[in-house]
Amino acid sequence: MNSGMTRENGYEDVKINTKIKLSALWASVTFFYIYGDYFELYVPNKVRGIIDGISMLNSPVKLFSASLLLAIPSLMVCLCIILKPSINRRLNIIVGIFFTAIMLLIAAISFSEWRVFYVFYAIVESILTSIIVWYAWKWAKN
User: Distance between CA atoms of 43 and 50, rounded to whole angstroms?
Assistant: First the structure.
């Protein structure tokens, strides 16, 4: 049997590299961000507010700032694969803690009848980013 494989109840299991685990977790987080923003368009008056210019992102600076913030998880998908482990580990811990805190804050302030889905996504996202921090923290040295 290969050193990277184990058998549990007859099923073969291959050890997955930490970089790949982290990249997959960031991809999942990114999808949740996209889904949350998409489903928010169905909240009553959301689209009307966007059309009328009444939204949180009602200036070029705010729109760019939000774009910059949400580019980070998407970039982490590839950075997890291409960066050296020592930099990768630190970056995942820092960015993971930052996004966990943001999503917990969003979950805490988003409670309303029409935003239950948003709170759910924020909690799932914070769990995923916490797992990212955990994997990065426990990353074994060679």
Answer: 12
Max Cα–Cα distance, the chain, nearest Å: 64
- pLDDT for the residue numbered 11: 87
Tell me, what's the pLDDT at 71?
97
Residue found by looking up tokens 């058998």 in the block = 7
- Scanning 1-142, the segments in alpha helix (DSSP H) are 18-40, 46-52, 60-82, 85-109, 116-137
Q: What's the distance, CA 119 to chain centroid?
A: 14
CA atoms of 25 and 125, how far apart (whole Å):
10
Statement: the pTM of the whole predicted model exceeds 0.85: yes
Nearest Cα neighbor of 22 from 138, 142, 124, 102 is 138
- For residue 23, the tally of other CB atoms under 10 A from its CB is 21
What does the alpha-carbon distance between residue 134 and residue 139 come to, in Å, rounded to a whole number? Answer: 8
| Tokens (6 digits) for 100 | 């966990």
Of residues 140, 133, 141, 128, the one with CA closest to residue 27: 128
Dist CA 96 CA 85 (whole Å) = 16
Comparing CA positions, the residue from 110, 137, 138 lying closest to residue 123 is 110
Query: Could you tell me the two tokens for 1?
Result: 């049997």
